Amino acid sequence: MTSHSPDTRVDEARREFMKKSAAAGVIALAPGVTLMTMSSEAAAKADPKKRWGMLIDTTVCKSGCDKCVAACKAENGWEAKAGSPTDPQWIRKVDVKDPKTGFAMSLPVMCQHCANPPCVDVCPTGASMKRADGIVLVNRHICIGCRYCMMACPYKARSFEHHEVPEEEKAPWAPRGQGTVEACTMCVHRVDAGGIPACAEACDKGAILFGDLNDPDSDISKRLASGPSYQIRADLGADPGVRYARLP
Question: What is the mean pLDDT of residues 180-190?
Answer without folding.
Answer: 95
